[in-house]
Amino acid sequence: MAAKNRSNLYLYLALVCFAGILAIFVIDGYLGIYDTLYITAQERQQVVEPDYWQQRWVKENYEGYSLGARWGEAIPFRYEIDNRNFSAYPADIEVSVWKGGQEVVVLLNETEVLVAPFKKAVIDWVLLPEDLEESSPISGEYREYTVRIRLGEMERKIILSYYPETAVYPEKVPSVPVPEPAR
Amino acid sequence: MRIYILYGFGILLCVSGVGYLAAEYIKYLSEAGKLACLALTTAMFALFGKYFDERGW
Question: Is A71 helix (H, G, I), strand (E, B) or coil?
Fold first, then answer.
């Protein structure tokens, strides 16, 4: 009888361990710093969830999120930081635009944020084409920039592709009269 | 005999499913959480081993 009770105790302890593993998965998976990016371009809001940056192909190739925009439109960004920790989260946020490894403009410079425990902080900024100090792209020309968002040790990259504001079509070629086929 | 093959197949599916979910979820855990999970998994298998040992398997 005592041996059976002892063997049952081992079974219960094993089940407690299993429940502990599940609890760690749920609680530890929930806790942490989560950032969500909302970008509005071409009248569509795109949401970059925290999961996007966790994908293996994004992490290994260090790829950014691709975004297309029309030259001339203002692109509003909204960056939401969700602090799911028991302590406040202080961090510096810096947003800059890069092209060909050169910094073009700094949109937010070392802005300090302090997010209270289990609260969210929202930071907004707008990227204007004037900030890039370049002339309008000509027809068929694409321009690509990298928007870098650095939050503490984290860095997010947005690959921004601009295309011309209006499509320019080639001038109409005068039609050449086609001779009638000989019968 | 066929029923044991089915049992084995079911157990294999369960283990692979749990393994896949664990591999997906472990990405979101902190280093301390991963260590705690490893310790609990080791303890769980050891306790299951003792349980089956006591049962005379």
Answer: coil
